[in-house]
From TrEMBL:
GO molecular function, one term: zinc ion binding
Pfam assignment, any one: CAP_GLY
Source taxonomy: Eukaryota, Fungi, Dikarya, Ascomycota, Saccharomycotina
Domain CCHC-type: 379-393
Keyword Ribonucleoprotein listed: no
Stored InterPro entries: CAP-Gly_dom_sf (IPR036859), CAP-Gly_domain (IPR000938), Znf_CCHC (IPR001878)
Keywords: Metal-binding, Zinc, Zinc-finger
Record Gene3D superfamilies: 1.10.287.1490, CAP Gly-rich-like domain
Record protein name field: CAP-Gly domain-containing protein
Region (Disordered): 96-120
Amino acid sequence: MSSPKSTILPPLGSTLPFPNSSDVAILKYVGSVSGHDGVFCGLQLCGSISNKGKNNGSVNGISYFQVDIPNSGLFVPLRKVIGWLNSNGFDNQQNEFNNNNTNISSSTSSPIIKNNNSNKNNEEINELRRHINFLEKRLVQRENDMKELDIQLDELDATLRSNDARLARKEERFNRYRDDKEQEVNLLVSTIESLEKKVGDAEEKYITKIKELENNKLEINNNLQNDNNNNNILNEQIDNLKKELETQKEIYQNFKISKTKEINELRKFEMENFKINQELESLKQNTNDSIKLIEFENLNKEYIKTINDLKLDIELKDSKIIELENSLKSTLDENSILKLQINDLKQVKNSTQFDENGGLKAFIPTIEIDPAAGKDNFCTFCDREGHSTNDCPFEKDNIELF
């Protein structure tokens, strides 16, 4: 049984054309490769394309063939190599090679036949030779068919192993998914039982709490009137403190302005003192008039005394400002305490379990949201939309050059 127009893979050690290059590759290995699905051809790249290799004939620690040039090995899927051979007319070259061998065998056997003088023997020999050639062609065709069947068998075997591995992964994933769901169901059953028990206990507690709240309601209503009176008193105190605070702020601003003026005057006196000292030094250097020098010294002493008095006055006013700031701070603290007391009263008034009409407020339970609710396709493995759990696309086989 033959396959017309099919490319037969040459024996190991044969040279194969390499796409888009004038250099060739040597066929070193044909078969499966660990960690990859399908049938691969192990090639040693020659010439300028040797630097395109990716390994030394080993994958995952397993050696499949040896190379003469380091890192010149390349594993290529069998279907790609057959495509290269079809595009380069490899069958025609192989047929020409077989025809040449036949012609050579014919030419070498001719002298032996011609040595026989009998025409009958010549005819028998020619007939036998034609029959042998026919059988040789059929044998070559059968060998080619067997090679192609072996390749197809390897491909089917690799596909079968790939399908078995994929089925085992899916079965493992299904078992894991089933175990997870069983655990979730058991957890939900235990949670429901626990919640039912808690609901029964909570009902008893709520009944007791309602009775306590009804008793407290009467006390709170009686205390609210007193709290309102206290609230009015506290508001009056806060208003008084605010007025006092504004007064203290005005006093502080006035002191601050006066202090700024005194500082400016002090700087002015210091500048005049500096000028007097310069004049004094000039007089000491340029004149011997002691009377004038004494007058300047006395004038300088008066300025120094005036400056010291101003500094003392500024220090007294600084202490007064500090006292005012402390008083202002204490006033702000008292104001904050009163505000906190008012807020506490408001919280006590608003934190009760009764509404504005005096009735009990309704209990509103919290609602948990399911992430898969309202979604047609939702995967529980990767927590993504667009596909179901059984069709998760994140485990796919990928045959590549390596």
